[in-house]
Amino acid sequence: MQIKYQEKTMEIDKPITIKELLKDEIEKNEYRVVAAKFNNEYKNLQFQIKEDGIIELIDLSQKEGMKVYIRTLTYIAGKAFEKICPGEKMTVNYQLANSMFYDADRVEIDDEFIQKMNKEMKSIVEKDLPIKQVVMNREEAKEFYERTDSSKGRLQFDLEENQEIFMYYCEDYYNYCYGTLADQTGYVNIFRVEKYNDGFLIRYPSLKTPNKLSIGRDTKKLAWALEEYEDLHRILNVNTVYKLNTAIKEDRIKDVILLAEALHEKKIADMADEIAKNRKIKMILIAGPSSSGKTTFAQRLGIQLRLNAIKPVTISVDNYFVERKDTPKDENGNYDFECLEAIDLELFNTHLTKLLHGEEVEIPEFDFLEGTKRYKGKKLKMEDDEVLVIEGIHCLNDKLTQTIPQEQKYKIYISALTVLNMDRFNRISTTDNRLLRRIVRDYQFRGYSAKHTLKAWDSVNKGEEKNIFPFQEEANCIFNTSLIYEIGALKPIVMPLLQEITKEEPEHAEAERLINLVRYFEPIPAEYVPNNSLLKEFLGGGDFKY
User: Fold this and answer.
1) Crossing angle, helix 430-446 and helix 450-467, to 10 degrees?
2) How far apart are CA 472 and CA 286, in angstroms?
3) Which residues contact residue 37 at a Cβ distance below 8 angstroms, ignoring those fewer than 6 apart?
4) Chain CA centroid to CA 289, Å
5) Quick check: do 2-57 and 64-217 share a fold?
6) pLDDT, tens digit (0-9, with 9 covering 90-100), for 50-106
7) Cα 80 off chain centre by
8) What is the pLDDT of residue 153?
């Protein structure tokens, strides 16, 4: 067999694991190697090579490497929890700045519990125990679950085509994971357990600093927004994919959709009411990561503002770019249009100040082809009953509107903060939710393939990490644009697009990972989605113009 790794080609005459084959390269890598790609598929390091192929190592400086780290950390937390609190159940809830939040219904999360969890998890890591993947057939797994904890396996068994169930074992502990784990517990040696609200956080490194624990950021507003939606979906009994699919099969999904949409409308109306009560507010600033649904949100907020006798006036930050020759460049020498310095801050703030003082200004229109502002006679003057609405990646950063007094600004952070879990131990990433939205939107309205979207996604994420996420707690309000049913509605469009990506293409691993997520969802017909839904921004066919 012929195996390629970077510039080397190796000949092997019998099956061998990736870890054995690349032992030296793994050990001397700058960052901890936790997994690999083999022929554009994600694999555990114990994966046995039995055919020709190409290997890429995955370490903690890569997004998928950090995902493996977090999954393995959660697996170890589950093992530690089972020893400390036998018979009780721990739930993975949601992700906060470089940490994961967990809770347990019948366990008091006090200082003693935190000390025990830290100690037991560190013991498991220090022993560097092997985590073995075992494949069972459908009947073996079903019998196994019935003898142990059948609730863990309900979802897999609903899939008739899922004939093989992949279990992970470590000593006498087992669990099912939707994704690759590290093959040894010793790999995840940087973490800390902390008490948080009524549960606990496990902190871990960031992509920027993979070899040390991240500094904790205050995320109280974000946590509150997530908790609010999670509590509601528990009450509606649709907080897992299994329960959502059950609602579809029992023909209750229309009620779930109407309730989810009603929650959005209520939150937007509450926001408009709050703005209307404070007559000092003259500017609404909206920011959020890609595919959060900012355009639809702004239009729906505008409707609610008009009901409060406030007329929204929209200004696009995109018309205030500096001249192309003055645009900063990134480390690769490319124009960095996402940095704050790419905006003509002086002109932008001058226009904002004049507008808020009742003066008329001529708004530029930026010519992206020529890289210059053009003035075409578009004049703007604000009336007493009007408020500026501005949407852009820097809107939560006060440097964008540095000359405007704080009391005149109302800042809104929006994102699809997913609270739906696969099961108690496996959550659905907010980033994955947005990525599925973007794949559908890029195809529907921009003519891009899923491959194109996946290729650009890392760059998009880096811009968000730098320009949006650090400022989310500066917002006056956080609005969660996720809809509990949306992946089912996106499935009929997104699945064929992902399946077009062949095994020979580098994006295949990510496509396969997303396919393995989406396939668990029962499809929801597009006609079930209301025409004013935020989801129509991606599906098309809605009432709003984009």
Assistant:
1) 130
2) 11
3) 43, 54, 55, 56, 58, 509
4) 9
5) no
6) 999 999 999 999 999 999 999 999 999 999 999 999 989 898 988 888 899 999 988
7) 27
8) 45
Q: Cβ distance 465 to 418 under 8 Å?
A: no
Q: What is the residue extent of each domain of the chain?
A: 2-57, 64-217, 223-310+385-539
- For the chain, give the number of residues: 546
Give CATH for domain 64-217. Answer: 3.30.980.10
Tell me how far apart the alpha carbons of residues 246 and 219 are, in angstroms, rounded to a whole number: 33
For residues 190 and 213, what is the distance between their CA atoms, to the nearest angstrom? 6
Place of tokens 């940087």: 190
- Token digits for 93? 């809830």
Query: Does pLDDT of 154 surpass 60?
Result: no
Count Cβ neighbours within 10 Å for each residue of 58-91 and write b for 16 or more, e otherwise.
bbbbbebbbbbbbbbbbbbbbbbbbebbeeebbb
- 3-state secondary structure at position 224: helix
207 pLDDT higher than 90: no
Strands 164-170, 132-137: pairing kind: antiparallel
The two structure tokens encoding residue 381 = 């003057």
- What is the Cα–Cα distance from 364 to 351, expressed in whole angstroms? 10
Burial label, 172 (beta-carbon count in 10 A; 0-12, 13-18, 19+): exposed
SS3 at position 123: helix
Whether residue 191 contacts residue 203, with contact meaning beta carbons closer than 8 Å, is answered with: yes
Give the sign of the dihedral formed by CA 137, CA 140, CA 142, CA 144. negative
> Quick one: pLDDT at residue 61?
93
Q: Is 273 strand, coil or helix? A: helix
Place of tokens 């990561």: 289
Whole-model pTM above 0.85?
A: yes
> Can you read off the two tokens belonging to residue 148?
């142990």
Residues 6+ apart with CB under 8 A from 470: 217
Q: Tell me which residue of 36, 104, 103, 97 sits closest to 70, measured CA to CA.
A: 97
| 72: helix, strand or coil | helix
Say which CATH topology domain 2-57 has: Ubiquitin-like (UB roll) (3.10.20)
